[in-house]
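Structure in, sequence out. Go:
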């Protein structure tokens, strides 16, 4: 038996029609709805919304939070943001995982989580992004956090930086820089000297991992090497290169001296 379903976000209508079943991430976990389901209103967490129109005919949307309302004659999903599964960049998600595998290959352990927030629209779905930060805060206790430079002009980067500081208030936070068209590089104050081998390895990993960026005019070996050379000059790095960060707040705990 089917029932009417409508899925809308603040930007557009994504689905409207009769369906047999839907499955979503509710406030208390996964939630399935069939025809004649009891009336319900619940918060939706970011994640997939599975829609079965008929047997063998299914659609998947990704919602960035919102509400699900079940009434006797219809079901409505009001999403903060939503995308059809085929609109999500699988390539960019795989690039994130590939780069993490390259840069963390010597780590004792790693867990890579890639969320499905729409690229370029973070400020417009800030509540959903903030919700995930709050979830993350309850799951991890980091020694150091790397986030975007707070002066980065890219709207997504800037929001992530702001939420990092809002969420993790008792942690060491280092902001990294991304060279690009906006010309928003600043004056960092925390440097990690690099030798030629490490510098070259980083460049190879970046170029190999992020194939979708190769048509950008700034995405070139000369850009990354030049920036690390400049930062190496600023900190008098023995090897001539350095990675630089912005450390806006650093708390140093001195050891206690019990001697005479």
């Amino acid at each position: 038996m089917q029932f009417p379903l409508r899925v809308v976000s603040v930007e557009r209508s994504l689905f409207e029609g009769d369906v047999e079943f839907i499955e979503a991430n509710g406030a208390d976990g996964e939630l399935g709805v069939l025809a004649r389901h009891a009336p319900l209103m619940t918060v939706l967490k970011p994640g997939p919304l599975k829609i079965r129109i008929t047997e063998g005919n299914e659609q998947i949307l990704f919602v960035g939070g919102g509400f699900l309302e079940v009434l006797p004659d219809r079901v409505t999903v009001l999403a903060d943001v939503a995308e059809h599964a085929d609109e999500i960049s699988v390539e960019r998600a795989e690039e994130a995982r590939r780069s993490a595998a390259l840069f963390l290959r010597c780590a004792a352990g790693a867990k890579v989580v890639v969320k499905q927030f729409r690229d370029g629209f973070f400020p417009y779905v800030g509540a959903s992004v903030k919700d995930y930060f709050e979830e993350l805060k309850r799951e991890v206790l980091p020694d150091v956090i790397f986030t975007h430079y707070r002066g980065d002009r890219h709207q997504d980067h800037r929001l992530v930086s702001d939420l990092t500081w809002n969420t993790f208030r008792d942690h060491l936070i280092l902001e990294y820089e991304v060279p690009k068209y906006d010309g928003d590089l600043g004056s960092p104050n925390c440097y990690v000297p690099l030798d030629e081998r490490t510098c070259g390895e980083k460049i190879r990993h970046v170029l190999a991992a992020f194939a979708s960026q190769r048509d950008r005019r700034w995405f070139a070996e000369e850009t990354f090497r030049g920036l690390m050379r400049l930062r190496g000059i600023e900190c008098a790095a023995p090897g001539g290169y350095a990675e630089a960060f912005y450390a806006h707040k650093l708390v140093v705990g001195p050891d206690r001296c019990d001697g005479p």
